User: Which sequence fits this backbone?
């Protein structure tokens, strides 16, 4: 099973110790993972992934919208590692948008938004890049869609995997940044009803925030 950094229940930082946008200050409980630590972990994930996958053309597939920050930074580290290691391979990207959350729960209906033509992945090594795996339903749908395009190999990296033993499919990706407690997190492109994507750090939303931005 993939190694990862385990964030224990209750292991958080005071939001007063970080730069938090004023418009979100009253709606966050704590900082769970500061952006600097995210970037440091992402750099090592890029090296691990390159060592395993950079033997043939690699396509990184971004799971929009929540995965876009992690995808951007991971891709940059992969490009830098790929370009400086003795053996480099062509690296390309593609995007797919899946949506299943409303408020702080899964609708149990994972939708592909805006269609998706992933014919570019046929016969390639594909790295699916996701922000968080909670129930696992989104990733199950993603793997089903991707397999239809007959890639040579599919690996999955998720920045976060949430400890949700009672409601998850127990799916574990090939690469994991952090294992996190069963709390609703926001920030670093991870949203609550499209809010908080503009927050640098991964934080725990508070009750006021859940009510303020509930649809
Ligand atoms: O494992 P699951 O329970 O399926 O939850 C994880 C998925 O839910 C969120 O996406 P969301 O539906 O919020 O769309 P978004 O990426 O546009 O925010 C998140 O970005 C993951 O894709
Ligand atoms: O904690 C979370 N925060 C935002 N979005 C999602 C979460 N879990 N599944 C989807
Ligand atoms: Mg998502
Ligand atoms: Mg979301």
Assistant:
């Amino acid at each position: 099973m993939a190694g990862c950094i385990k964030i224990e229940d209750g292991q958080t930082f005071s939001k007063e110790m970080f730069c938090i946008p004023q418009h979100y200050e009253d709606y966050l409980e704590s900082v769970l993972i500061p952006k600097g630590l995210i970037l440091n972990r992402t750099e090592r994930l890029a090296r691990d992934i390159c060592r395993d996958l950079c033997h043939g053309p690699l396509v990184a597939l971004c799971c929009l919208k929540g995965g876009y920050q992690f995808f951007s930074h991971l891709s940059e580290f992969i490009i830098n590692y790929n370009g400086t290691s003795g053996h480099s391979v062509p690296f390309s990207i593609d995007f797919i948008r899946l949506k299943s959350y409303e408020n702080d729960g899964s609708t149990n209906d994972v939708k592909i938004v805006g269609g998706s033509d992933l014919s570019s992945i046929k016969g390639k090594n594909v790295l699916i890049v996701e922000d968080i795996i909670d129930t696992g339903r989104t990733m199950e749908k993603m793997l089903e869609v991707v397999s239809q395009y007959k890639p040579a190999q599919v690996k999955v990296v998720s920045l976060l995997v949430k400890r949700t033993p009672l409601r998850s499919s127990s799916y574990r990706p090939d690469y994991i940044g952090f294992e996190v407690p069963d709390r609703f997190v926001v920030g670093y492109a991870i949203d609550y009803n499209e809010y908080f994507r503009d927050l640098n750090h991964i934080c725990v939303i508070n009750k006021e925030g859940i009510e303020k931005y509930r649809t």
Remarks:
- The beta strands are 5-6, 28-33, 58-64, 91-102, 105-112, 125-133, 153-162, 175-180, 185-186, 202-205.
